[in-house]
Amino acid sequence: MTIRPLQPQDLPAYFVLRTALWPDSAADFELEVSKILNHPHLASFVAEQKGRLAGFVEVSLREYAEGCDSSPVGYLEGWYVAPKHRKTGIGRRLVQAAEDWARAKGCSEMASDSELSNTPSHQAHARLGYQEVERTVCFRKSL
C-alpha cells in the first residue's frame, strides 16, 4: 500500500472514488481537481494498492475552524476509502498524510466535519483522536 499525492494520471480512478463520496460533484470535477493540483493551500493524497486507487483524502488550509484556537488550521475536506478496503488501516494512513502535510504548512491543529447522521464517520474520526467540538443544524428557505 502506497500513500502519495494525487497525480494527473490518477484522474479517471479518482473521479470514481470522489463521486462515490460526493455524487453531486461530477459536473464540477475538472474544475475542483484543477484547483487541488494547482493551489498551495489544497492537496489530495491517494492510497494505491496493486496499481489501483483504494481511497483518498482532500485537505486544505483554513483561516478558522470550529473549536480551534490557531490559524491556519488543516482541514479534512473529504476522506473516502472504497468499501472493500475499509477497516484495513488505509483511512488512518490517508489522514496521517493529510496531517503531515498540514504540519509542514505550519498548522498545529487539524479539523474536520461530518453529516450529523454519519455515525460511521464520527466513529472513524474518534478512533483517530479527533474530538467532537460542535453540532450544527443548517436551514434554508426558498424566496
TrEMBL record:
Ranges for domain N-acetyltransferase: 1-143
GO biological process terms, semicolon-separated: response to antibiotic
InterPro entries per record: Acyl_CoA_acyltransferase (IPR016181), Aminoglycoside_N6-AcTrfrase (IPR024170), Bact_Acetyltransf (IPR050832), GNAT_dom (IPR000182)
GO molecular function annotation: aminoglycoside 6'-N-acetyltransferase activity
Tree of life domain: Bacteria
Alphabetic keyword roster: Acyltransferase, Antibiotic resistance, Transferase
Reactions that this protein is recorded to catalyse: kanamycin B + acetyl-CoA = N(6')-acetylkanamycin B + CoA + H(+)
EC number annotated for this UniProt entry: 2.3.1.82
Pfam families linked: Acetyltransf_1
Assembly with partners or alone: Homodimer.
The name this protein goes by in its record: Aminoglycoside N(6')-acetyltransferase type 1
Species in which this protein is naturally found: Meiothermus ruber (strain ATCC 35948 / DSM 1279 / VKM B-1258 / 21)
